[in-house]
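Quick one:
INPUT:
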């Protein structure tokens, strides 16, 4: 009986985000349009929660986006509630209509993104700092544009196919802290 319960729990943890499907965003507005939304300055506030829901980290992000040749470059500047700072620079290119390839220094290989209606779904592996080293974790990252200036992001983080946490962010084109 314990083995059956463990298998059921494992199955639920592995399929926790299976209900999300890009097709449900067909014909929704406003259209996501990655390059248009992230052009210029964008601001975000977020949290990282453990698998059990405990908030482990809070952070702010200032993002600068610009077109450079065939690439769209996103410079993310992180400030965590414990005072730590960080940066990630994405180099994003189109890979067909409504599809993107993204590269950054802490991304293993490439990130793959697909836009449908008001949604963008990214899949990538991130080298996450951990105990003086790094571990590779997979992100299933869902961005939903809810208005001209506002976007909500939910990312499911997993290791070996098991969900280890979630990241939730709120994005806006204006800085309400000023």
């Amino acid at each position: 009986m314990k083995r059956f319960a463990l298998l059921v729990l494992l199955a639920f943890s592995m399929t926790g985000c299976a209900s999300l499907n890009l097709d449900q965003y067909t014909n929704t507005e406003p259209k996501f349009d990655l390059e248009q939304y992230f052009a210029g300055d964008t601001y975000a506030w977020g949290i990282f929660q453990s698998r059990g829901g405990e908030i482990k980290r809070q952070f702010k992000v200032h993002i600068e986006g610009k077109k450079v040749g065939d690439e769209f470059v996103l410079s993310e500047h992180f400030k965590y509630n414990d005072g730590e700072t960080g940066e990630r620079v994405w180099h994003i290119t189109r890979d067909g209509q409504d599809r993107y390839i993204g590269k950054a220094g802490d991304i293993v290989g490439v990130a793959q993104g697909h836009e449908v209606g008001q949604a963008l779904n990214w899949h990538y592996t991130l080298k996450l700092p951990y105990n003086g080293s790094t571990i590779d974790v997979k992100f299933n990252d869902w961005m939903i544009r809810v208005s001209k200036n506002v976007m909500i992001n939910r990312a499911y983080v997993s290791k070996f196919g098991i969900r280890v946490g979630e990241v939730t962010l709120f994005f806006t084109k204006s800085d309400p802290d000023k």
